[in-house]
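Weekly structure sync - notes
Attendees: PM, LS, DV (DV joined late)
Agenda: review two folding runs queued last week.

Item 1: First target. Sequence and structure tokens pasted below for the record.
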Amino acid sequence: MKRIINAPFKFTRGLYDWTLRWSKTKNSNYALFGIAFLESFIFPIPPDVLLIPSVVSEPKNWRQKALICTVGSVCGALIGYYIGKVFYDTIGLAIVNSCNLYHAMSVVGEKYASHAFLSIFGGAFTPIPYKALTISAGMFNISLPVLIIASIVGRGGRFFIVAAAIRIFGKKVRYVIEKYFNIFSLIFLIMLILGFLAFKRLI
């Protein structure tokens, strides 16, 4: 039983170590852009996982790292938008099913009618699955400029806050994350659930 419980933590820890190695290579910026790009429509891991060690490794470049994350995420949002608009019945459904996004898509769809900008901003800034927002935006014919502007504000705000915090606290944050990684994994899961519930109630 203990092995079953620890398995997700081992996988997540392995992923953290893998992304940390990327942050120390000359291709770290490309990897950061790629993960932020893919996470917007298909990849299950948030780019914060790579953003944090990247800023720890190069604290003076924290603005650049946050900007790369933002640009990659917004560019990926365009792909998610067109998947929802043109290919929802094929590619879109496959992504929704594989990432277990059906409930999130339903909630987002209900909110888009009167609060499209706030819905996108709220989802972009909080830890709920961003791909549910981008794909839904295309499926429900939300204005593309609204998606882009809300994503820039929401995702940019999130990534710059994370990068600035790492810049300020630096290695102390990295030490705490590595020492208490399993606890942080549970906290992130709780934040994910609470963020989704708050988004559902307030937007």
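Item 2: Second target, run right after the first with the same settings.
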Amino acid sequence: MTIRDYNKLIEEGVSLKQIAQAYGEIASLKIRKIRSEVERNRTFFNEISTVYKIVKQQAAAKKIAITKPKKTLSVILTSNYRFYGNIDSEVIRHFMINTAKIITDRLVIGKTGQEYLKAVRYFNAFQAVELSKDLPTAQDLNTLSTAIKNYNQVLVFYPQLITLLTQKPVIADITELPEKNIPQGQDKKTADPYIIFEPELEKIVQFFDNQIILLLLEQTFFEAELARTASRLLAMDQAQVEANNFIKDQKTSRAHLVRTIENVKLLENISALRVLRKERTI
């Protein structure tokens, strides 16, 4: 390689570093903006989920249920974009491992998941939904509502932020089947609280199935976006470290090449001087 080649590689490394810095700064600003809101909403949606469990348990005890033609739908949330580190791949692997063990239909949201699973022949049988952005609009949620409304159980696979340094794949059952929510050591009779419903329980069940499920689904999108943003921040920080190492290596190689060229020139000059001395002595 020539010095010009090394200079070109160094310029490319500097450009990659600047891109990583820009993405990292954007991710940092985004986390500051949405983290507190998501964590505040998390408490609210956990409470909504708890109420939903109680309603489902009471409905099951009174044999009130909305009959749906299909059993289980597994939904995976992935991004339409790149530069999020390994978090999407981890969620996809988690999705593949867990859905292979159960009988379920599959719904894949996001280009990343669709492209990955299309390459795996066993998982070609899935529905695909592409949103204009990673966070759904009201119209997108209505589309998803149509896709999930005929299922008794909806499992959502998505990444969740644990800390800024840790994100992990999780599964949320947003339909909250009552059998899964009875504490160990209790039967249905002791687990069911004494509650008076107004209006009647059947209408409340219908409301939850039509509205609350969408709210819980929307929260999983926000959780996934927060986790992906944190993953991008870490990935871009690592990219900057790698870019710095790359630039340092290329500069070292260039300096070695420059010294080699200078040594060759010096040897050529010494050889030329020796030849001149021989000619003068002759």
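Discussion on item 2: Helices lie at 3-61, 87-99, 111-118, 138-148, 188-191, 201-281.
Action: LS to circulate a short write-up before next sync.
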